[in-house]
Design goal:
Strand order of the largest sheet: 2-3-5-6
Order of helices and strands: HEHHEEHHEHEEHH
Number of domains: 1
Oligomer: single chain
Largest sheet: 4 strands, antiparallel
CATH class: Mainly Alpha
CATH topology: Outer membrane efflux proteins (OEP)
Strand content: 5-15%
Helix content: 55-70%
Distance between the termini: 23 Å
CATH superfamily: Outer membrane efflux proteins (OEP)
């Protein structure tokens, strides 16, 4: 469990300016970022391609009129070549739709992860600023007290100067913390597409609540990225079959009607077929190219399976170890640093230790607090990464609205 002081610093009060919880930030980003709107467009594009795969090409109609002999001719032709490969084309188009759906799910999960990273980055930066503000206040108070005690002759000027220098060091770190907050706030604004005048604050706790069972091992077959690769490989395989069937020379249909306005002319009607003549190419080049693309897609799917298993294993390990580090830093390291600082101050007031021991204890407490913040940030980012690799939206885990 976090210490009460650190918990309050990480929770923070709701700022006077606009603030967003993680759930609100994700929803806002989904409504205002153009990238999200393109996800459905990608799927609709492939669905339109599937509908097109069912269609034959439109017939060609030609009309001619010869004034010299007062004749008119209407002709129409219909190609039937796609019929030989239409089944394979439809299957390939269906596989591309499945790949687009899996890709949109993965992209949305990655989008949520990026929003969560920006959100927790701002949250951690705000916590660091609050910590440095409190530390700076303590350091300034000690510096003022040291000035008074040095003037009264209770401590040496060397001790006084050390307290003053420590206050300066704290102010430098305080400035860096504020700079980091400004940078992360701008990144957060960009990530969610914020339209307000001032950057919103991050409201909530610096930890995403994911249960233990949600970090259990994930079946790689359910990961959207791998499903996309497999669907793309299936589409390439069907297109290879389509290229083979396309070599079959199916005849086209021809119709022609010729008439004249002059007397005594008998109208003529012609019905026939046209067959493509493979004079310059037998289509083997297209088959070879399609076969190469299918081979590459199948290899990418196999490699993607190995990479997915590796990435899931690594991400899960990071979550488990980050959870242990965050608990250790919050429960043990921070509590020990607080006891060390309190003991050093008591000994210094009793004249049993020097000022260096007090300064070291103060620095140790400050470093422990910042380490706890950093480890909680690392834990939240690790959880977000694991959820994204699994293809799960963070709306499932984000805390409820206020």
């Amino acid at each position: 469990m976090l210490s009460a002081t650190l918990a309050l610093l990480l929770q923070g009060a709701v700022p006077a300016r606009d603030s967003l919880s993680l759930l609100e930030a994700i929803r806002y980003a989904r409504n205002h970022r153009a990238d999200v709107a393109t996800l459905s467009a990608r799927v609709e594009e492939q669905r339109a391609g599937r509908r097109l795969a069912f269609r034959l090409p439109n017939p060609t109609v030609e009309f001619t009129s010869v004034a010299a002999n007062e004749t008119r001719r209407i002709s129409a032709s219909q190609s039937l070549t796609p019929l030989s490969r239409i089944r394979s084309d439809v299957r390939a188009a269906t596989a591309r739709v499945e790949a687009a759906l899996a890709d949109s799910i993965q992209r949305l999960a990655d989008f949520d992860r990026d929003v969560a990273r920006a959100f927790f980055g701002v949250h951690a930066a705000e916590a660091r600023v609050r910590l440095h503000d409190d530390i700076a206040q303590v350091a300034e108070s000690l510096a003022v007290l040291a000035e008074r005690r040095a003037a009264a002759g209770d401590i040496s000027e060397l001790d006084r100067d050390q307290f003053v220098l420590e206050a300066v060091r704290v102010r430098l770190k305080q400035s860096k913390a504020r700079e980091d907050l400004a940078v992360r706030s701008s990144q957060f604004v960009r990530q969610i597409g914020w339209t307000g005048e001032t950057a919103p604050a991050a409201y909530g706790v610096l930890d995403m609540e994911i249960a233990e069972e949600d970090t259990a091992a994930v079946d790689p077959a359910t990961v959207p990225r791998l499903r996309e690769l497999r669907a793309s490989a299936a589409a390439a395989t069907h297109l290879r079959s389509s290229a083979r069937w396309a070599r079959m020379p199916l005849p086209g249909l021809l119709f022609e009607r010729e008439s004249a306005t002059r007397a005594g002319y008998t109208p003529l009607t012609r019905i026939g077929v046209s067959v493509p003549l493979p004079l310059f190419s037998l289509g083997s080049e297209a088959v070879d190219a399609a076969a190469s693309r299918a081979q590459q897609a199948e290899a990418a799917a196999r490699e993607g399976e190995l990479e997915t298993e590796r990435a899931l294993t690594v991400a899960r390990s990071r979550v488990l170890e980050a959870r242990r580090r965050a608990q250790l830093a919050s429960d043990t390291l921070l509590a020990g640093a607080v006891r060390l600082r309190e003991g050093a101050v008591r000994l210094y007031e009793a004249g049993r230790t020097n000022v260096l021991q007090v300064l070291e204890a103060l620095r140790a407490e400050r470093d422990a607090q910042l380490t706890a913040v950093d480890e909680l940030l690392a834990l939240s980012e690790a959880k977000a990464e694991y959820a994204a690799l699994s293809g799960r939206t963070l709306l499932t885990y984000a805390p409820a609205d206020r």
